[in-house]
Predict the structure.
Amino acid sequence: MLRIAPVPKTDPFGYYSAEGPGTFEGTLAAVLGVDGCVVTRAAFQHLWDGRSPDGLRKLGRTRRFRAWDVVAIDPKSLPIYEVLHPESTLDIEAARRTASRAMLALLEERCAWARRGAGGTKLEKAVGLLTSRFPHKLSRALQPASHTHHILWSLTQRLDSSWGALPGIRSTRAARNRNGRHGSGHRSALYLAKREAGEVYQAVLRAELERHGYRTRDREGFGFELVGVSDRLMRHFSRRRPELLAHAERLRAEHGDRVPEQKLLVWAARGSRAEKPKDLSLPTLEARWREEARALERGVKLAPPTPSRERGRDR
């Protein structure tokens, strides 16, 4: 599953790097000499300002829209399995990296287009994409929920070596209309590739895990889960999902059926999210999760969560 949204303007680097460093990836990372390098705050800010990661070159005009956040969400059983079996982390993270690379390869094939001309209405094929990859392990309810943020920068290199911006939704519509095309011109290539990119990520992730010797099972509806993590454990560590559904129901009552279900869920996620504490300790949380998992497996009834304590330090 993929989620795509604009990168927030308020201290984005602080949020994305809160759980560990990110790395540069993509064809343009090699072009810019930062492939596999750690994303520093300075490099992030340079790109945000429309410059190269080292700050020495201007990469086209300053853009109002800087980047997308492409979030690849793992099956729920993966982070729980890592908590119960810490020795599996290296294998699982390697599988995630391989799945991310496969997903990025598809996005480069489908979405590497550059704007050109007055208003950026002309689109032409580009060299590739630049992403900053930040793996996260926490949900906003402070429960295990591994997902990877791929910051897809809105810049690319044209085939003549000049630099330009990736097309946004509005510029794609203008380009399609100007060329006399019809159909899905109101959507950018990134959104059109979203479903297939998510399927590629899930398929490669599953194949890599099985190659490392992990057993998987089909999940009802779509996707897979790891064998060895019970449905009971997954329900216990899925506190965020009921919050979203409850908030979406309130929005449904307010807006009626004229708003699509997926859009309601997006609104619910934005409207009900709490900020993660700055001083959280992942090892402490993992120790607590292990205790909860063992208690559940023994049939011990756990006390209900106390959000005010767990999230009282939120910004």
About this structure: The CA atoms of residues 51 and 58 lie 4 Å apart.
